Amino acid sequence: MTSKRLHSEDQLVEMVLDMPAAPLPRGFVGTFGFSESEIESEALRLHYTIGQPMRWSIDVCRSLSPMTLQINKLKKEKGVFLIAHSYQTPDITYGVADSVADSYALSKEARDSPQQTILFSSVRFMAETAKIVSPHKTVLHPSPDAGCSLSDGITAEDVISLKEKNPGVPVVCYINTSAAVKAECDVCVTSSNYLKICERLPGEKVIFVPDRFMGKHLQDSLRGKKEVLIYDGECEVHAEFTGKKIRKWKDNMSNHGIDLIVLSHPECDSEVLQESDFVGSSESLKEEAIRLAGEGKRDLMLITECGTADRILAETNNHLNLMGSCVMCRHMKKTQLEDILQALTDPLPQQIVEIDERTIRRASRTLEEMFRLAE
Ligand code: 13P
Ligand code: SF4
């Protein structure tokens, strides 16, 4: 989507924020017995909460509202806690989720929720993490084939071989890994605590898997204190951004007299992070944007997945000019309301997360160590 906006100084500023189109229902959606006026008021609620009147038009919201009504009804009837990662589409994050956050906060919420059934709208490794931290709960995952280039790029055997080559060196894994990989590691980290946790580990060496960009950031930050051995995985979304692209955008804007504030996710490469004013997890990027909007700052460039832009647009009442382009994660966007409805109504066997007891026991040590060191 390309749009033009008038800047406060009446300069014409080209704002290019490439956002994916809103997902329409895959097929016919009935009314689920809801009345016309219930469907209409739900459509209005979605339309105004999402706050993007062009992409999420009232017609789009009207086509989705019978499903959000039905999901919210079933959720209550069945006592299900529905959590969604920030990268899920706004009909999920603002339509049906009880909580939306980053990977760290959601793993804690899954662990602490009183409800015995959790539906995790996200990619597989996050749903597996919820099962590891709350093995006695039923964890539903609507899109069992929603992977992640980081998590799919490393196996338990890869970690075992790294440990054999580097005996005694602690292995730190990013949360974007399978349960089997977590079971072979010593401590897990997320984008909100990787620096703090690695700094706190004893010894002069750590192995960090699988994100090479975050690993490079760790190497730079811990230089002189700790040696960091890294793996060669990457997030296919954040790898799209380069220092050159960011500099070009900043220069373009500065030619219009605009000082862009750049917010990036730490899965980006180090040149991108060097060009950034703030680096943080999906949730902290959103919080920082809200803080900047409160200070009257307007022109921001978000270097991350498009879901974070959706959340910022919804939660700042469109007060910000988001410039540059976001990249969509095809894995995160696999989940649609239909999948959630299926998992809530009559889950397919593959939508119920099952992990063997030994893997859960070993992987939960890795996650408990993260909770201990992150606090
Ligand atoms: P967050 O921990 O920032 O939510 O990141 C997870 C992720 O997959 C980012 O690409
Ligand atoms: Fe994985 Fe990247 Fe998608 Fe996050 S954005 S789920 S790291 S592929």
3D architecture notes:
This protein has 375 residues and is an alpha/beta fold. It folds into three domains: 31-144 and 332-351, 3-Layer(aba) Sandwich (Rossmann fold), CATH 3.40.50; 150-234, Rossmann fold; 238-325, NadA-like (Rossmann fold, 3-Layer(aba) Sandwich). The chain is 43% helix and 15% strand. The protein has 15 helices and 14 strands. It has a four-stranded parallel beta sheet, sandwiched between helices. Strands 8-7-9-10 form a four-stranded parallel beta sheet, with helices on both faces. Helix 1 packs across helix 2 (58-78). The longest helix is centred in the N-terminal third of the chain and has 21 residues, at 58-78. The chain is globular, with a radius of gyration of 21 Å. The structure holds 1,3-dihydroxyacetonephosphate and iron/sulfur cluster. 1,3-dihydroxyacetonephosphate is lined by residues 102-104, 176, 190-191, 235, 267, 281-282, 305.
Q: What proportion of the residues form beta strands (DSSP E)?
A: 15-25%
Supply the CATH superfamily name of the largest domain. NadA-like
Q: What is the CATH class name of the largest domain?
A: Alpha Beta
Q: Termini distance?
A: 41 Å
Count of separate structural domains: 3
Based on CA atoms alone, the radius of gyration comes out at 21 Å
Shape: globular
Query: What structural class do the secondary elements suggest?
Result: alpha/beta
Per-chain topology:
Layout: E1 2-6, E2 12-16, H1 36-50, H2 58-78, E3 80-85, H3 90-93, E4 99-101, H4 103-112, E5 117-121, H5 124-133, E6 138-140, H6 156-165, E7 171-174, H7 179-183, E8 187-189, H8 194-200, E9 205-209, H9 212-222, E10 227-230, H10 243-255, E11 261-264, H11 270-274, E12 278-279, H12 282-294, E13 299-303, H13 306-315, E14 321-323, H14 337-345, H15 357-374
Parallel strand pairs: 3-4, 3-5, 5-6, 7-8, 7-9, 9-10, 11-12, 11-13, 13-14
Antiparallel strand pairs: 1-2
Bound molecules: 1,3-dihydroxyacetonephosphate (13P) and iron/sulfur cluster.
